[in-house]
Task: structure prediction
Amino acid sequence: MDLHAFADTPSPRGLPWRWGPSVSATPATSLLAPEGEIRIATRAVRSAASPAALFLWLCQLRRAPYSYDAIDNFARRSPRVPDPGLQSLRRGQTFMTIFTLVEFERDVSLTLRMNEGWPTRAFGALTVTYRIDRTLGGGSQLGATLRMPRIGGRLGALRRYLLAWSDLPMMRKQLRTLSTLAAKEGL
Result:
């Protein structure tokens, strides 16, 4: 049985590689790998919040993950009041404990790379770009594009496939939570 073919073939609905509206991914050219080396997973939510409010809340990922706190935040609740000071960004800052900021455009996008060491051994050398786009009708869309490089070994394709499935509910919760909190900002 060819595990690579099985694990890298999306279901008829696109799961686990795609969830939500289409994402306008614009990966930084410095982060691209040769064709076929990277599997892309996208997740997105529509939001009533402004891009400025969504970006404020994206910056809060410096202190908490905003998904299922019992699982990925040591059972501590992610803060529900934003710290505007976290919008002072510079490359190299830590996000969600296991990511490093590599690129950003204010009110538009953040690109995070998985830290080396145990996070990369556990999850692979992931890169995540969060992007905010305006939608027709005055709303916004908060999307995430995960670049998942091949994971070596006999079960590498299966590991990447299972990672995409396990990420799906976590990222879905995160994007919905950030969108809800941003909609309350009134920016």
User: Anything to note?
Assistant: The longest strand covers residues 38-47. The first helix runs from residue 3 to 7. Residues 57 and 65 are 11 Å apart (CA to CA).
